[in-house]
Predict the 3D structure of the following.
Amino acid sequence: MYRRNTWGRTLTLDFFILWERLGDIVVLPVTSFKNPLWDSIGEDLWPVIAKSVNALRLARQGRVADTATRDSTLEILLGDNGWVDHRENRILYSFDATKCMFSWGNLSEKLRMGSLDCRDEIVVDLFAGIGYFVLPFLVRAKAKLVYACEWNPHAVEALRRNVQANSVSDRCIILEGDNRTTAPKGVADRVCLGLIPSSESSWATAVGALRSEGGMLHIHGNVVDSEESSWTKYVSESVGETARSQGHCWEVFIEHLERVKWYAPHIRHVVADVRCRHAQK
């Protein structure tokens, strides 16, 4: 029996590998079949593996590229291209998996954002990607309007497709380029900063995007588990100082800390919900 996100026996080999399904592509781990011997018989091997896991296409995961746009390095082993349609929580994500990353591990956070009531809110997503959080905000949380900032042209292409495919393009404004220059100012009720390991370079941009009354920042980060308290203190103090430097008299505090997943041993991907509001007199 082969199931998504479970250990499955492949062929008749004496080991197990963990694989994941992305649309009609089965994605093998980055370390799978790396011996050159496998490539030498790949023309015969890959179709057999694909058939054994009931897949039309087969790929091998790659490391996230060490670039500003964090490109995918997924390798197609069987198939003509990397474009895939992937459904998650009744939302369609269409993208080229060889160029754009897709994380299964942050599903809980996408569900959390989608469960919010944003019907009267304007949302700014500073790191929109292919629409990881943009689509939950629009499709599930019913946001009034989302400004989606993204500088990776491959992700922008996918994002344009996805807002059309999910029938929410009329409530989404895509701003291509560096969010520090493209993000709107003074309009947002809520700002999403879904970049890891750190989005600190855009904290000032996020504060500037909020309305004068304040609002909510969702700040993602990778944090050593023993340093969560010091990190949240640093976040609230830094955002507060930035707000004061921009002329705001706000009370800034961490309303909630969401622990999304383990990123590495002792390092968590967390999200700080930072509330900014007029200081009580």
Notes: Residues 7-80 form a domain with the GMP Synthetase; Chain A, domain 3 fold (CATH 3.30.300). The two ends are 63 Å apart (CA to CA).
